[in-house]
Amino acid sequence: MRSRSESLEFALLGLLSQTPLHGYELRKRMGTIFGPFRALSFSVLYPQLRRMLEAGLIEESVVDSPSRRSRIVYDITDKGQARFENLTETVSPETWEDEGFEIRFAFFSPTSSKNRVRILEGRHRRLKEKAEILRGELEKSPIGIDKYLEEWRRHSLDSADREIAWLEKMIKTERK
């Protein structure tokens, strides 16, 4: 994904390819992908939806509800489905960086097996590099370094090592 906007478009198309949703539900589901510390504001969500509407990737309809006010529900168009399928088959270094990988993995099923392996292997290489840098920083930490910075590095290394082991299992499974 070349930009945050393209990552957001990919995730929204992925969600809408599963079922039509209204804005609040889209935001809620995006929170499960991005996590609680990178909440998606409505001031980011709605302009992105508007751009996607103008590009013909999605369409909106008003749904009346007897118990509450009417809602605008978004649905993917054929053009949007084609765009989503094209994005699932696009593999670049951004697809194994932190945010790009999380979003891609959330919608891994429609991605071809060959490209899933490429993305997993790229993520694996990226984390191995990160783990080596962290190990080096921990080995040469000067005396008196902030203990919390050192603990953060240790925690980051532990997290990277766990994800590396998980990726190795995923790659092995995917290759079968």
Describe this structure in words.
- The structure is a single chain.
- This protein is mainly α and 176 residues long.
- The chain folds into 2 domains: 4-106, Winged helix-like DNA-binding domain superfamily/Winged helix DNA-binding domain (Arc Repressor Mutant, subunit A), CATH 1.10.10; 113-175.
- Helix 1 (4-18) crosses helix 3 (42-54), helix 1 (4-18) crosses helix 4 and helix 6 (113-139) packs antiparallel against helix 7 (147-175).
- It has helices spanning 4-18, 23-34, 42-54, 78-88, 98-106, 113-139, 147-175, and strands at 21-22, 58-63, 71-76.
- Strands 1-3-2 form a 3-stranded antiparallel β-sheet.
- This is tRNA (Guanine-N7-)-methyltransferase.
- One of its GO terms (biological process) is methylation.
- Residues 12-85 form the Transcription regulator PadR N-terminal domain.
- It comes from Candidatus Planktophila vernalis.
